[in-house]
Design a protein that fits this description.
The longest helix is centred in the N-terminal third of the chain and has 14 residues. The two termini are about 15 Å apart. The protein is about 60% helix and about 10% strand. Helix 1 crosses helix 4 and helix 2 packs across helix 3. By secondary structure, the protein is mainly alpha-helical. The protein is globular and about 25 Å long.
Length: about 80
Amino acid sequence: MTLSVAEENYIKAIFDLANEGKVTTNTLAKSVRTKASSATDMIRRLSDKKLVNYVKYKGVTLTEEGQRVALKTLR
């Protein structure tokens, strides 16, 4: 699966934020320095690729495949 640089950056940010606690759209947007609406759009795109699980108002988590991508990207 080929990911854009932006998608990889979001995956890395979600991975890092998950270690600190719950990952919300607002915390993710702040981490990647964008608007919450842009973060939501990217979360939906990553969800379509089965890399994240997103539940509105509950936050976002990486799927097993998302975790593999994050670890591969961080190395």
